[in-house]
Amino acid sequence: MSDISLTSPEIDYQKSDELMRKLIEEVGEYMTIPKEEIEKTLMETYLFAREAHHGQMRKSGDPYITHPIQAAFLLLHLKPDLTSLQSCILHDVIEDTIFEKAEIEKRFGHDVAVICEWLSKLSAIKYRGEERTVESLRKMLIAMVEDLRVIIVKLADRLHNMQTLEHHPDPKKRERIALETLNIYAPIADRLGIFRMKEMLETECFRVLHPEEFLKITHELKDLKDEQEFFINEARTIIREMIPESVPIIDISYRIKAPYSIFKKLQRKEYSYSHAWDLYDLFAIRIITDTIPRCYEVLWFLHNVFVPMPKRFKDYIALPKENGYQSL
Ligand code: MN
Predict the structure, then answer these.
(1) Cα gap 59→42, rounded to integer Å
(2) To the nearest 10°, the Cα dihedral for 308, 314, 316, 318?
(3) What CA–CA distance (Å, rounded) separates 154 from 128?
(4) How many angstroms does the Cα of residue 58 sit away from the middle of ligand 1?
């Protein structure tokens, strides 16, 4: 393979070049290695991937390279290392361009090449109903054992594809891809404890698979926004006042139930809920302290003021959730 040219006047890369500069800047904020090194490594990777995909377009009309870059942005909250980011930028090169593993290995080293090769193998996975899912999951598991970074990149790739699924012209295909995401990728993200990615994946699937319910629930959530903000501010103040200063409170954060979780709960026959605001756990406050005994101590202060609802209190420290999640 002769060396590729790095000038491509006929396609406008202004948008992806800008995205790349922003990515490098954000990576520089959490990595401890010198900024020049980050920039050099990521720029080299980007320019190679950009040229490799040159002439290929996404269904949205953007140059193909915007896809792996946007996927890399979706990884940033996990503070990925350079190898993960490079693998993400290059993740479709083996599958979709003339370049092979050896070329990636020569330019970017063994780890990046192995991860990219795995991503090419995994791109063959297709969801064809429940039974075949097991087979796909088995393949993923083997990849995971080899290098967990394969799966992390795969999740980001899938999330960006889901976010741009509206550009797919065939509704049957959109549905197949959404089912595959819901049954294979979201459970993996859940098992790995990457809850933010799991929620984002499920939200996109929900939008495709149940468009009417999706609109209903997202509108209801929008209407509750003011109430929500008032609630979190009040709750924060009250909790601070209730817990003595001798107990270290590392963080008091807040979450609102994700649209797909709300939908699943509304579907359950044993409750007769029909709106988001009917749910008891629509808003939740998360208090982080330093040790397990402290968790129980904080709870003791809270239960002195707020009596728990019978049968609704759960001790996930003594009985962790299936994915290993622990809390009170
Ligand atoms: Mn991709």
Answers:
(1) 26
(2) 90
(3) 19
(4) 10
Residue 288 host element (H or E): strand 283-289
Side chain identity, residue 89: I
Angle at 318 between CA 254 and CA 251, to 5 degrees: 25
Q: What is the DSSP letter of 63?
A: B
> What are 256's strand-pairing partners?
283
CA 92 to chain centre: 19
Give the distance (Å) from ligand 1 centre to CA of residue 82. Answer: 18
- Quickly state the pLDDT bin for 130 (edges 50, 70, 90): low
Q: What does the pLDDT average to over 44-51?
A: 97
Rg (CA), the chain: 23
- State the pLDDT at residue 9: 53
Count the helix, strand and coil residues of the chain and give each as a percent rounded to the nearest 5: 65, 5, 30
- % pLDDT > 70, the chain: 95
**pLDDT at residue 3 in the model:** 45
Strand partners, 287: 252
**Phi, psi (deg, nearest 5) at residue 310:** -55, 135
Task: Report CA(56)–ligand 1 centroid distance (Å).
Answer: 13
Predicted pLDDT of residue 15: 93
Tokens of 165: 């699924």
pTM above 0.90, yes or no: no
State yes or no: pLDDT of 132 exceeds 80: no
Residues with a known catalytic role: 95-96
How far is Cα 180 from Cα 212, in angstroms, rounded to an integer? Answer: 20
Tell how far the Cα of 154 is from the centroid of ligand 1, in angstroms: 8
pLDDT at residue 7, as a whole number: 52
Strand partners, 57: 63
Look at residue 226 and give its three-state secondary structure: helix
Q: Take residue 197 and report the two structure tokens written for it.
A: 């990615």
CA separation for the pair 279, 277 (Å, rounded) = 5
Say how many Å lie between the CA of residue 38 and the centre of ligand 1.
23
Tell which residue, 253, 257, 195, has the closest CA to residue 221: 257
